[in-house]
Amino acid sequence: MRFVEMRPEQLQDAVRRNVPVLMPAGVVEYHGPHLPLGTDFLIANAICEEAARRAECVLWPPFSFGPTLSWAAGPAEGEVDFSPEPFFQYAREVLRHVISLGFRRVYIMQHHQGPEGLQVLCLKRAAMEVVRDLTAQWGAEWGRRAPSTLPVPDIFGMIKVAALDTFSAYPSPTAERVPVGHAGKGETQLIMAAYPETVRMAALDSLPVLPEWLLDATEATAQEGRRWLEFCIQGWVNELGARGARVAPSLKDSEQ
Questions:
Q1: Cα(68)–Cα(78) distance, rounded to whole angstroms?
Q2: What would the 3-class secondary structure string for 117-150 be?
Q3: Contacts for 117 with CB less than 8 Å, ≥ 6 apart
Q4: Cα gap 63→26, rounded to integer Å
């Protein structure tokens, strides 16, 4: 269910049944001459869209812009370095309203600069300020009460800021992780799989010298990208379907 397409009774029913909210988050920045400017956002969005098709959740409008530090390029090549303070304030207001609507399971799938990047830190700060506002209404010493007696027992897990593979099951601690180097093989193959019409590999020849982060881009294949996308999607489907949410069939299941 897309939030903006829901009617009031659908919203109220989703809140009553503790249906989770899912938000994709990324940025718009230069990803070499061969990939779209919205690569980070598009990858998160592709996983969210398919996860929402398979597991019942409320798909919220995305955070499409965020701080990039102008790391890869400038405005002439499409870099949109959103200032962190207004981004944080916007994210906080969005999350405040999500909680005020009654939702208590909120997930932000964030893909940009890893777990310590500026965007993810802004999102985590926004989440914790919303938590602080809510717990302020409970009075002092609320931590001494049994969690089951609190208005929101899982208060510190109410809003989760997670990565593409946070909920994926790797076969072992040393197993290969989802490759997501900036615009290189990892992100190129994910975009090849999710948005093939946006990729033009021949454009790499337009650069006289490739930056280090683009050196392995030509090794990407759509097949490998589809494998990793499915790996991430399944992890999110499992997480969203936990604690009572209805799980819809996969594409493969629905075709049988």
A1: 11
A2: CHHHHHHHHHHHHHHHHHHHHHCCCHHHCCHHHC
A3: 67
A4: 6
Which residues contact residue 53 at a Cβ distance below 8 angstroms, ignoring those fewer than 6 apart? 248, 251
Which pLDDT tens digit goes with each residue over 126-141?
999 999 999 999 999 9
Is residue 205 classed exposed, middle or buried when 0-12, 13-18 and 19+ CB atoms within 10 A define those classes? exposed
Burial class (CB in 10 A: 0-12, 13-18, 19+), 210: middle
Beta bridge partners, 22, equal 59, 107
Query: 95 with 130: CB under 8 angstroms?
Result: yes
Domain range 3-180+231-242, its CATH number among 3.30.9.10, 3.40.50.10310, 3.40.50.200, 1.20.1080.10: 3.40.50.10310
pLDDT band at 85 (very low <50, low <70, confident <90, very high): very high
